[in-house]
Specification:
679 residues; two-stranded antiparallel sheet
């Protein structure tokens, strides 16, 4: 027995289980997480909640917290439905019945036995009480005639002793099989020394030397190899509490039977005395453990005391994992997940999935994608907005390049004159490299990681040429009640972010202003617009939006004005001379007149105008068509999925006069800005 525990202890101390996943797998990819978080943020979630929702859902090939929690709950339900708690009692009954049967056979075969003696013994066996505990107790003084019957009866005492020890020390049941008197004496000595050590702790007089002396003497009984008394206490108290919960879950009759049978363990009350003393010490030192819980088990598979205690420990682990996976308590973090318990209960892959989620959360918080604002709220950083915008822009490029008759095109400026600005190189660029900027980028990168290569493709910047004139772009997006009600809120934000990313990354000489117009209009930066909650107040103030757009155009007199209006309703409000908002539904003629007058001002400023009509409202269609005809603009009625491609395409084609007839699908997408292509 001691050799077995010693081998287990050495194995645990020399080797540690590999906790990672595939060692050749790439580091966590934030792209999918950032896309999902960005979608939720644009739908009105806070960045913190959006991150939590992604961690709950998981990714395409990544289990999330909800899936792991479902598997935890499923295993817990399976344990309760599979088992019952009378395994030890049933095993005792079987051994008792076998012993009595063998004894009766021996009595019937023994022809030399006195008939009166035979009759008396048969009467003793026949009159055994139905209670297994009472029957075992009554047979304690019986003079067995059958050697096999005596052995079976002794197995009952041995079984009870091993089960009771297995409740407190996992693995004892198998380790003590065929145990000798010397083994039993060693156990009693260990229990005595352990209780003395715990009682010293209660009195506050224990020392590290006491623990070290105990482990030197009895360490073979503790393959977990605790490093101090607290570790030993924690492990033992958790198992003892599980054993108590198992007893609490039994019926009163089952508990009574086991209590009476326990007195027969190893044929000596010394073991029970030591274990009872141990339980009292553990409860006193670890009162915070769950000593009073219980579970209902109605399955067909009986559990012995040791195995049942292990199941109740598993149930406690599963309950703890369920709480950790819920992340619903104050201060919850992904680092709270116990990967060892998760691996033990659900397998290594579950632990790998959880560890990946931990790494995702850490990367999102620490790699510049999120930051806290002045109020302490978590916000997406400009870096995150750029990454999200690039992904949206790629979707737009895929839609545009997939249109019949369209093709990717990239060219340098017609005259080849340098504009003085640079941008990051992208596949297909033919512009000359900016060598000083490229070398500087490589130097700055190596300052963070000195061992890196002298140059990477991301270091390369190219010089932009004067193929185009500057444009002053005003994107007006409807933020009225109907946009949120009809599911157009997120596509509107995606469109704005895609256009913003395109201009800031490829057309940095252009001037973009984002204007949201609901009951009133407001100039917004991209972070403000993407985080904007749904506006539930009624009103579509196109007049105010056009006022702000024209002010933007006047600030850039040398740039080509480009007016892009995304709306799903006729104007229902306008700005009065005193700054107050006038609202009327159905639309008031005065509101229409104010919007028309300001649109005429846009035309006088030379604006190329495109209306993007969302929805099938006939009144809106008539209004938008008449407005577009008035200023020789275009009307596009895209599906929501195509809104981004429509707006970006119109922007790309707007710089060339007459680039496609009014009312054409998306205009000439590559008319004036043909050298952009999505990455």
């Amino acid at each position: 027995m001691a050799d077995r525990f010693r081998r287990s202890s050495l194995s645990r101390s020399r080797f540690k289980r590999y906790e990672g996943g595939d060692p050749l797998a790439p580091p966590v990819d934030l792209a999918e997480a950032l896309d999902a978080i960005g979608e939720d943020v644009m739908a009105g979630y806070s960045p913190e909640r959006a991150m939590r929702e992604f961690l709950r859902r998981g990714g395409r090939d990544q289990a999330g917290l909800d899936e792991l929690a479902r598997r935890v709950a499923e295993k817990r339900r399976e344990l309760l439905q599979r088992h019952n708690l009378d395994g030890t009692l049933q095993e005792v009954k079987e051994l008792l019945e076998r012993a009595v049967l063998e004894e009766r056979k021996q009595l019937a075969r023994d022809a030399m036995m006195d008939d009166a003696d035979r009759a008396f013994r048969e009467m003793q066996l026949e009159g055994l009480p139905p209670s297994p505990a009472a029957a075992v107790s009554e047979l304690s003084s019986y003079d067995w005639q059958s050697r096999q019957a005596r052995e079976d009866y002794e197995k009952i005492k041995d079984l009870l002793g091993r089960e009771l020890l297995d409740q407190r020390f996992a693995g004892m049941k198998s380790a003590l099989e065929n145990a000798t008197d010397e083994d039993r004496a060693a156990i009693n000595e260990m229990l005595g020394d352990l209780n003395e050590l715990l009682e010293k702790r209660q009195q506050g007089i224990d020392t590290p030397e006491d623990f070290a002396s105990f482990m030197d003497k009895h360490g073979d009984f503790f393959p977990e190899n605790p490093q101090n008394l607290d570790e030993l206490l924690d492990a033992m108290a958790q198992r003892a509490a599980a054993a108590q919960r198992m007893l609490n879950s039994m019926t009163p009759e089952q508990r009574q039977e086991l209590m009476e049978l326990s007195a027969q363990a190893f044929g000596s009350p010394q073991l029970m005395e030591g274990l009872s003393r141990l339980d009292g010490n553990l409860q006193s030192l670890r009162p915070g453990e769950d000593w009073g819980g219980s579970e209902r088990m109605d399955g067909d598979q009986g559990l012995g005391l040791g195995d049942g205690t292990g199941v109740f420990q598993d149930l406690a682990d599963l309950d703890e994992l369920s709480e950790q996976l819920s992340q619903s308590y104050g201060g919850a973090r992904m680092d709270d997940l116990d990967l060892d318990k998760l691996s033990r209960q659900l397998g290594d892959q579950a632990a790998v999935d959880a560890k990946t989620l931990q790494q995702l959360e850490k990367a999102l918080r620490e790699q510049g994608t999120m930051r806290r604002d002045s109020t302490g709220q978590l916000q997406l950083t400009p870096k995150a907005m750029r990454q999200l915008g690039k992904a949206l822009l790629k979707d737009v490029a895929d839609k545009m390049s997939g249109r019949q008759g369209q093709r990717d095109l990239r060219r340098a400026g017609a005259a080849g004159d340098l504009s003085g600005s640079t941008r990051e190189w992208a596949f297909g660029d033919t512009e000359p490299w900016d060598i000083p900027r490229t070398v500087l980028n490589g130097t700055l990168r190596r300052a963070g990681s000195p061992g890196g290569p002298l140059m990477e493709i991301g270091d390369v910047e190219v010089q932009e040429t004067e193929a185009r004139t500057q444009a002053a772009v005003a994107l007006l997006v409807d933020t009225s009640f109907s946009m949120a009600m009809d599911g157009r809120w997120v596509p509107m934000k995606r469109t704005a972010l895609a256009l913003h990313t395109l201009i800031k990354s490829r057309f940095r000489g252009d001037h973009l202003q984002l204007i949201g117009f609901g009951r009133h209009a407001e100039v917004m930066d991209i972070e403000q617009l993407t985080a904007l909650d749904a506006m539930w107040e009624k009103g579509t103030n196109l007049h105010h939006g056009l006022l702000l757009a024209n002010r933007h155009f006047r600030k850039h007199p040398n740039a080509q004005p480009v007016l892009l209006v995304v709306t799903d309703g006729e104007p229902t409000s306008h700005l009065e001379a005193d700054g107050e908002v006038f609202f009327s539904y159905p639309p008031h003629p005065l509101t229409i007149a104010h919007a028309v007058r300001e649109l005429d001002n846009s035309r006088r400023l030379g604006a190329q105008t495109t209306f993007f009509r969302l929805g099938e409202d006939p009144g809106l269609a008539r209004f938008v068509d008449s407005m577009a005809q008035r200023v020789e603009g275009r009307v596009v009625a895209p599906e929501l999925d195509d809104l981004g491609a429509a707006v970006v395409g119109s922007y790309l084609g707007s710089r060339e006069q007459g680039s496609g007839p009014a009312g054409s699908a998306y205009g000439d997408w590559f008319g004036g800005r043909g050298f952009w292509v999505g990455d």
